[in-house]
Amino acid sequence: MLKTTPTQRNSSFKWTARVIGFVWIFLTGCFAILNIFVFVQPQWIGDTIESPRAGHFGLYSYCISTVNDYEFDCQGTWTNFGTILSPPFAVATFFVGISALLILICLALFVLFLFLRARLVYFICSLIQMICSICLLIALIVYPSGFDHDTIRSVCGSNVNDFYLGTCQIRWAYILAIIAFVNISFLASLGFFLGMKQPKLDTMQEVINPNHILSKYGELNEALDDLTLSEQVLPSITIQRR
Q: Quick check: pTM over 0.85?
């Protein structure tokens, strides 16, 4: 029967790890879009049919209906924290903004796969993703403590208090922020796992082929090396009789 050599098993693992790595990169890009979307949308909380007036609130901006209820007066900008309703909202804005900035940096660092070992790049990017998850968690916890504000009471009723919305409700942007937190936490864990599964340079040299010269460049540049390696693997397949 055919006997699988350690070289073949290692080559198969490398290609499987690369496929998972590409999925990891794609999902990181999706999270970056989601993070920015959550940051700019003023739909974290909003009115219901029981609310005194229409309105919705985001991290830094909010919109409240005018007297005739046909138009909305929107205020607040992330470039001026003085326009944000409450300090907890400002803190949440800061941490979600930091998360968005860090994940963009993480996407830019993916180019390091061309120049550095995948093991190191995975660890660097996963650490950034872990910081992003911590920032989102802080924002999700701190944001509800800012409900106790007169402007929010004008929309959600006089019973509004910290962590209690009165006649208002949580809207889709806050739910997306929770999904984003779960997503980036999973991606950070997956990145650390992929990094730990990447063999070290000396280990790769010994396991794959002592005579095989590994690329001094990054993981993606080893694709051509793998073609040469596959040619080296074929003669090593042996047929044994029972």
A: no
